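User: Predict the structure for this protein chain, please.
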Amino acid sequence: MTDVEIKLAWLEEQLELILAAVQDLREELVRKDSRPPGEPEQVQQTIGEGYANLARLYQEGYHICPMHFGSQRSGEECLFCAALLHRGKDKGSSS
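Assistant: Here is the predicted structure, written as structure tokens:
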């Protein structure tokens, strides 16, 4: 595979993730519109889903830290990514 083909495959994967996220947001909007007035939103669940997606990307070998977001890791752990994941676990468990 050439470098261009690898980059194209990565972009196609990212597009699929984005399209799935858009679909999830559309479904959430429909659920929100159908919710009775005064019923509280489930914000914490949405935050947890975001961190779960970041954790999945990190496990697939991509950086999730702001400095290198989306670039492939060379199999090494990234302290910045790990700190971001750790912070997400703290927020998810505070509810």
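DSSP finds three helices and no strands in the chain.
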